[in-house]
Amino acid sequence: MSGRGTMGSAAGAADRAGNSDALENLARVGLIAYGVVHLLLAWLALQLAWGGGGQSADQSGALATLAEQPLGKPLLWVLAIGLIALAVWQAAEVLRWRGRLSASGDARKKAVTKIVKSVARAIVYAALAVLAIRFASGSGQSSAQSQQQQTAGVFSWPAGRWLVGLVGLVVIGVGVYHVYKGVSRRFLKQLDLAQASAGTRRLVEKLGLIGFPAKGVALGLVGGLLVWAAVTYDPAKASGLDGALRTVLDAPFGQVLLTLVALGIAAFGAFCFVRARFPERT
Fold first, then answer.
1. Is the separation of the CB atoms in 201 and 19 below 8 Å?
2. Residues of the chain scoring pLDDT < 50
């Protein structure tokens, strides 16, 4: 079979996978799971702001909190399956858009943008699924500690310090994009609200306007800590989301600012629920 034929077969398989009812339903579960993680993050951030709780205010803390609840570990397995389905869905998107790389001009640029976004999302969903599986099996580890260990390992590579700094700048860029996505209302493209009521549309718009910028701020701070770790050559500075939220708390009016960030993260979690109810049609 020719390369063109192989690519066409892969794209066709991706279309069938992406349009599969089973995968769509699993992806809905994944979006709900993603929303639950953000609601737990918001709760931990509120506890951090007001002096309660002992869990890290990051993804590992959220999953650890869920694992401690009745039926928490079975729920973590369900969450992991849904997140894996989200990763597979994004992988199917990569194959679907790969066939359009041979185009030119704006069409090619759009294909490249879609592929980069889908790859990034697939990595995030897969990493979170792995973390959920580890907590479900009792081998979970603090995200901040893990990131510090990984950063220390990268520092030992040739030009590792520069690589850590570059990753930090990329994360900052992603955070800026989330803020832009919220302010510009581009998040509405992720939804099919044709059957939604006017009240639901207004609610969705408010959730996105609050949720995306708040998540963008959190990501920007995480990226900033990575850059600072590279500048100071100190992996302990790469303390992840927990460190980012503690940085907000240490700022002037930190308690109020962290509360606002927490409410924004909760809004993003609620937006994930809405997205599961009204998924985009590709």
1. no
2. 1-3, 7, 10
Q: Over the range 211-235, which residues count as b (16 or more CB within 10 Å of their CB) and which as e?
A: bbbbbbbbbbbbbbbbbbbbeeeeb
Enumerate the β-bridge partners of residue 279.
191
As a whole number of angstroms, the distance between CA 71 and CA 242 comes to 26
Q: Hey, what amino acid is at 169?
A: L
Residue type, 136: A
Q: Fill in the DSSP letter of residue 196.
A: S
Bridge partners of 84, per DSSP, are: none
DSSP E strand boundaries for the chain: none
Q: Which pLDDT score, from 0 to 100, does residue 1 have?
A: 46
Cα angle 157-158-162, degrees, rounded to a multiple of 5? 90
Cα–Cα distance, 191 to 189 (Å, whole number): 5
Written as six digits, the tokens of 84 are 């894996």
CA distance 35 to 266: 8
- Identify the three-state secondary structure at position 199: helix
Which are the contacts of 216, defined by CB distance < 8 A and separation ≥ 6? 174, 175, 176, 177, 178, 179, 180, 181, 182
Dump pLDDT digits (tens) for 153-177: 998 888 889 999 999 999 999 999 9
Cβ–Cβ under 8 Å, residues 257 and 185: no
**Side-chain-facing half-sphere of 151: CA atoms under 13 Å:** 31
Rounded-to-integer distance, Cα 56 and Cα 54, Å: 7
User: From CA 209, how far away is CA 206, in angstroms rounded?
Assistant: 5
Sign of CA dihedral 97, 211, 214, 152: negative
